[in-house]
């Protein structure tokens, strides 16, 4: 438990305040801030409001001996934040106050007087550099940053590359809390990288001149630095991840004071609205704390984007510092009083920060302490482990020892898995951070890794190639950057070595050149054969997102252009990129399967140690470089864990790609009647990989391509069509009304018989039965047609959930 620390900072008089000869209404004594209502003082009644804070900074008048400068603010507030980050805690520092009161000055500062953000980052990296001095037990670090703004209640990425990107959505993770979907994460390894990104982000932030401030922030800005630190000391792993939110809020403002109109007025009202929500959240949390958390008060985090994103920092898992910035002038008395009131309420908020330990490391630690506990039980029974292992071993001690051994084995296994995962990440980072990248292009910083259980996702905003290695013995993952404007690809033995050295007997010394021209990547073939999507290219040709690039007969790469993919995704989501076009795009590349299984085995691929190559080795890796989805640019690979059989129910074979599965299964559908039946009862998306694992053994060489014969293709098409769920709907639309009509006819005959039994004449009974049927049948028919049609359209939209898979298969 820790309460929110609050500091108040008074800035010097602004030019406007000096010009209006406004006088002081504020005084600071130690940690005390006193606000005078000068009007009442002058009338002799005198009224002063006293507030107590953790720090009260009087930054008025530089010549004043008591004036507190940027350095002092940093050492009081920044120091503990850095300490908390290294200890594995989340922290948040946010500046709150009226417009023009000095929030941006305190958080960002200027070139000559840097504020908290640059100072904290600088010190953080200097401490990282200081601690990372070799040795196996040295702590290794990974740092990523993101920068966003909330403008008119919309989240925008300030580091999306070039211009502020489109509005992003907020989602909530059950464990990690709210996060922004699609926000770019940038790997940084030194302060220079941070400074670059900070400047780039600040230049995009919405600012405008108002009557109160020449450079007024029109948005709330959240700068987040995530630091992961890991160490394996004496075989014991430790991994923590701390998040540092540094927030510069937009200031509250009165339209009359700022002279806001039109767009500025809209911005101002949106700023005020979110600040009112922040105030409400602070008040609710303070009330909650006053009742020692017993009273279940509703905290309206979701009422504004700002409070939702700061949910963890306000009453959650973070150590939080609030800096309330105020003007000392009497003309701002009302705003200053309101700021001080909120600040003093915020002091009552209780947060619950915890060390953010990696879940697998936590399990290892818990298992280890359990082992220690069991060992202690044995020792207290005055039995050493040697005696226990002897003949006199009692039954209870024996089971304890077995339990200890089992747990120790589990600890060893988990530690090995963890170490391998961390080593992989470090290997990538080493290459990303290597000197040439940083020198030639700051964009190399745009690489981020995300670990999610056994899954590691590599994101890059820079055009790159991913090795699609046909060698079944290859287990590495090759990630190749395009170097600056021109990247030469050539043979491994070429002298001087090319930028990207490609193995293979038919790779020329200067095989080809990839040139980046105005954001487009163009392939220039030089002395070797180059294919784009299996088409031989002899003149310069453009590479597009998702294209397959083949050099010689064996080296194949998938080309990713993240910016182009982003555009495609956007157009697709807006419905501008029709499903047909996307399907055509996919088909074009599915046709261009780079290798058939019958092709001769290429030379073993070991990526060259060229600086632009990241090669990843792990014990068991499932690569997902899906060539059938053009907009996907991130690279995912998962470690195959023996315990996760159900997740990996696909028939995996070393080096076999998803495309090969597709072609294998397509050929098989056309051959086996049993498969036809299965196809009809299995959702089509699940069908393809499954059939490969059926009872019949398929010779890889025989079925390496899709069926060539026209009737087989036709049969395949019909089968896939039959398997489409919308057919169910059509069937329902036609049959349900027919069956219900029939049922009504039968029931009308029965009704007639019943009426006759009630002594009605035969004719009267028949007329009555027919009338009832005539009235009821259309209603029932209409209802069933509606249900059938609804079902049909839902199925057509693929909203019917797929039939769950019946069988799980063991991974090979
Ligand atoms: N402690 C300080 N010492 C010297 N100058 C300051 C101080 N605080 C603020 N200023 C000056 O006051 C002006 C307004 O500050 P700033 O832009 O930081 O305000 P703000 O609260 O961020 O305003 P807004 O909410 O409109 O963005 C700037 O010119 C800044 O240099």
UniProtKB/TrEMBL annotation:
**Domain spans labelled Kinesin motor:** 3-349
Q: Kindly state which keywords UniProt assigns to this record, in alphabetical order.
A: ATP-binding, Coiled coil, Membrane, Microtubule, Motor protein, Nucleotide-binding, Transmembrane, Transmembrane helix
Transmembrane stretches, by residue range? Answer: 726-746, 767-791
* InterPro entries the UniProt entry points to: FHA_dom, Kinesin_motor_CS, Kinesin_motor_dom, Kinesin_motor_dom_sf, P-loop_NTPase, SMAD_FHA_dom_sf
> An example Gene Ontology cellular component term from the record?
microtubule
Which GO BP terms, alphabetically?
Answer: microtubule-based movement
Source species, domain of life? Eukaryota
Region Disordered: start-end pairs: 576-612
Q: Name one GO molecular function term.
A: microtubule motor activity
Family annotation (Pfam families): FHA, Kinesin
Task: Quote the record's binding site residues for ATP.
Answer: 97-104
Q: Where is the composition biased (Basic residues)?
A: 582-592
Q: Which family does it belong to?
A: Belongs to the TRAFAC class myosin-kinesin ATPase superfamily. Kinesin family.
Do you know which PANTHER family this protein is assigned to? KINESIN-LIKE PROTEIN KIF16B, STAR-RELATED LIPID TRANSFER PROTEIN 9
Q: What is this protein called?
A: Kinesin-like protein
